[in-house]
TrEMBL record:
Coiled coil: none annotated. It comes from the Bacteria. InterPro entries: LP_HExxH_w_TonB. This is Substrate import-associated zinc metallohydrolase lipoprotein.
């Protein structure tokens, strides 16, 4: 967001430098963003208003606006046929389950108020992709929506479940950031894997990371990422699949680290937010299963 503002300031200075006071700039209402990009309310807009805006003061932008995104990335708009299925699924898996466990007041306090929806992935120069970003607890950008297919949608096959789980992994990850930026996790967390974090995390597989006491390769990038990756993967896997993951790790020290992290996450949710993590975990995975099985 900061670099977007810098870009706009530079652009404004360029305009002032190249125009004279008496120059006719024409009808500025035809410039996108200054009145020339209006459109009629659609059924999608009505659904967003009734389902998200009225009850939670949340909105979602699906009409294309490159100014909301990284100017250096090649991105594509979302397929509008995917908008309601995506947002409806997000509400069922994420919003509704947090409301059931923590109450509507909790969710309205922490929920980002603005979602920006993007059809394609956001590729990085190191070959990785960004699936989502959170900006100051206010906005979440979600990518790869055009690959979204759930049970009952045309063309759905079981392998599509990977994309569904990744989307919720992304949302739970970004919401985890909002939670710890509101109330920080215990400092003891950073001592568990101290010295093991690396900027070269993308050179490892998840399986390699597991043997080092991390829930994923990306969790190795920093303590904050480790914390929210642990939250998001525990929630989206569910307890049985999480235990299956742990059972396959061959290094006892790595298992010990993951169990310590698991305990901190569970206690953080209980002590800070009065949330029963095990119950939330069961609800979250059950809701995902309803979409993919």
């Amino acid at each position: 967001m900061f670099k977007h503002k810098i870009y706009l300031v530079v652009l404004a200075l360029a305009v002032f430098a190249s125009c004279k006071k008496g120059d006719d700039l024409g009808d500025v209402s035809q410039i996108p963003g200054l009145g020339g990009d209006t459109w009629a309310t659609t059924p999608i807009d009505t659904w967003i208003r009734d389902t998200l805006t009225v009850p939670f003061n949340v909105t979602a932008k699906y009409k294309w606006d490159a100014g909301e995104l990284d100017f250096n990335k090649t991105l594509t708009p979302p397929d509008e046929s995917k908008i309601i299925p995506v947002l409806s699924s997000i509400k069922k898996v994420w919003i509704d389950n947090y409301v059931k466990e923590a109450g509507k007041t909790f969710m309205m306090k922490l929920i980002p108020k603005f979602f920006v929806l993007v059809g394609s992935a956001s590729w990085n120069t190191d070959g990785t992709i960004t699936l989502g970003t959170a900006e100051g607890g206010r906005q979440i950008d979600l990518y790869v929506l055009n690959d979204f297919r759930i049970k009952g949608m045309a063309g759905y096959v079981p392998s599509d479940s990977f994309n569904i789980i990744q989307m919720f992994h992304t949302i739970e990850h970004e919401f985890g950031h909002i939670m710890h930026q509101t109330v920080y996790y215990p400092v003891a967390w950073k001592q568990i894997s101290v010295g093991d974090y690396t900027s070269n995390w993308n050179n490892d597989t998840d399986s390699t990371a597991h043997e080092r006491g991390f829930i994923s390769a990306y969790a190795q990038s920093a303590p904050d990422e480790d914390f929210v990756e642990t939250i998001s993967i525990m929630l989206t896997l569910g307890k049985p699949q999480y235990e299956d993951l742990i059972s396959k790790i061959k290094t006892p020290a790595a298992v010990s680290k993951l169990r310590q992290k698991e305990a901190i996450v569970i206690n953080y949710f209980k002590d800070v937010w009065s949330i029963n993590f095990a119950s939330l975990q069961t609800r979250t995975r059950s809701s995902i299963d309803l979409l993919i099985k």
